Amino acid sequence: MVSSFFYGTLMHPSILRRVIGNDGSHLQICPAFLPDYTRHQIRDADYPGIVPYSRSRAMFDHDLELEDRCVRGSLVIGLSDEDIRLLDIFEGNEYTRERVLVHLLGPLTSLNDTPPIEVNGLVLAKPPPVPTSSELEKPLEVDTYVWCQPLSQLRPTLWTFEEFIKDSAWKWLGSGSEGNKDYAEVDRRRAMEGIISAGSGRSQEERGY
């Protein structure tokens, strides 16, 4: 079983379930954060890319505050080899799957026990601040998908889940997701292999985590 840190569209449970093609009953989830990375808007895309702050620092005209050089997201534990295979297809060639150290921000809960969520309920009005180094628990080493294309394709503007939920999530959920090209490749692979799912992934050339 694999543990992964999601920081973009896959933070939404319904999008994660659609990509892996099952109800996620084998998964546990909790809030977490990844220090010393920045999460950027990608030109002409709804989804973000992350890069180490050591690489992205040159994109800014000032040093970033602690909150902005940490990436908040979701830690998911229990992913199967098949889940990871489909996630790799979904992420495509814009990302590499790498090992990183993340810190938990809450207790693990079963994804299957999570009641249906209203989209607006996924965003905390005022999330707690990132803990200081003295307050941190021991980090966990997990997988995540790191942007591997030129930095010129990223905007200096930091991507936020709040803005995604407000402006773009409708294109990824329910009837609004019909024809979404970002699900196309996972759908195609699943159809080729005769796997019937409740949902569908992004093309090999176009993606986000």
Tell me what you see in this structure:
- By secondary structure, the protein is α+β, with helices and mostly antiparallel strands.
- It has 5 helices and 9 strands.
- It starts with a strand and ends in a 17-residue tail after the last helix.
Give a topology summary.
Blueprint: E1 2-6, H1 13-20, E2 28-35, E3 37-42, E4 48-52, H2 53-56, E5 70-79, H3 81-91, E6 95-104, E7 109-110, E8 140-147, E9 154-158, H4 161-167, H5 184-192
Antiparallel strand pairs: 1-5, 2-5, 2-6, 2-7, 3-4, 3-9, 6-8
Q: How many β-strands, per DSSP?
A: 9
**Roughly what is the average pLDDT, rounded to an integer?**
87
Q: End-to-end span in angstroms?
A: 19 Å
Fraction of helical residues: 10-25%
Strand composition percent: 25-35%
Characterize the biggest β-sheet: 6 strands, antiparallel
Please give the radius of gyration in angstroms.
16 Å
Low-pLDDT residue spans: 196-201, 203-207
Helix and strand composition category: alpha+beta
Query: Which H/E pattern describes the elements?
Result: EHEEEHEHEEEEHH
Number of helices: 5
Principal-axis shape equals globular
List keywords for this structure.
209 residues, 6-stranded antiparallel beta sheet, 3-stranded antiparallel beta sheet, 19% helix, 28% strand, globular, disordered C terminus
Short description:
This protein has five helices and nine strands. The chain is α+β, with helices and mostly antiparallel strands and 209 residues long.
